[in-house]
Amino acid sequence: MDIEKVKSILESLLFVNERPIQLAEISRILELKNKEIKRAFETLKDEYKNRDSGIAIVSVAGGYQMCSAPFNEPWIKKMYSHQNKQKLSTASLETLAIIAYKQPITRVEIEEIRGVNVDGVVRKLGELGLVKTAGRKEVVGKPFLYITTRKFLEYFGINSLEDLPNLEEFVNLAEKENIVSQEEKKEEESR
């Protein structure tokens, strides 16, 4: 199969999927070697980038996904700013961050860091598919160990846990987000 046909098929597969597609899955479908598929992906990525396309192909959660180009973010945010989004509570985000950075971790260890009971929060994160149990810790009582899931990577648009910001970047990002949120609130109040 020539590379143009492979690129066309890849675009279609990515377009119809809301989740990242794993290389092994594409290899099975196209009956091609991973090396050939990777080459086609890289060619597509470069073509989109070189023509300043509104579409980009990114590596997320160990797979490939089609998404909007990052430089169009302001317009996309503007379009969706008034729609209801399921947001995670501050307690959920704090707990999720602890699990992401300290995993595998027990509920008691999370509570020691947060200083509050996290039963309900961990249960909710599990229901959302962002965390899961990964066995039991070999201590008295054998508590469950919690880790993040592939859906966590997808939710935050990262390819692996190594892509998480270091803790200093995380603090700066949180401060920046707080400033932006306050500016948006002032802007809305002035309308």
CATH fold annotation of the largest domain: Arc Repressor Mutant, subunit A
Strand-residue fraction?
A: 5-15%
Number of domains: 3
Q: For the largest sheet, list the strands in their spatial order.
A: 1-3-2
Unreliable spans are: none
Structural class: alpha+beta
Bin the helical content: 55-70%
Measure the end-to-end span: 57 Å
Q: What would you say the CATH architecture of the largest domain is? A: Orthogonal Bundle
Main sheet summary: 3 strands, antiparallel
Summarize the structure.
The protein has helices at 3-16, 23-30, 34-50, 73-80, 90-102, 107-114, 119-127, 150-156, 167-190, and strands at 21-22, 55-60, 63-68, 105-106, 131-136, 144-148.
Characteristic terms for this protein:
single chain; alpha+beta; Arc Repressor Mutant, subunit A; 3-stranded antiparallel β-sheet; 9 helices; 57% helix
Written description of the protein model:
It is a single chain. This protein has 191 residues and is of the alpha+beta class. It folds into three domains: 3-72, Orthogonal Bundle (Arc Repressor Mutant, subunit A); 86-157, Winged helix-like DNA-binding domain superfamily/Winged helix DNA-binding domain (Arc Repressor Mutant, subunit A, Orthogonal Bundle); 167-191. The protein has nine helices and six strands, in the order αβααββααβααββαα. The strands form two sheets. It has a three-stranded antiparallel sheet. A three-stranded antiparallel sheet has the order 4-6-5. Strand 5 (131-136) and strand 6 form a beta hairpin. The radius of gyration is 20 Å and the shape is globular. It starts with a helix and ends with a helix. 16% of the residues are buried. The model has no long low-confidence stretch (mean pLDDT 86).
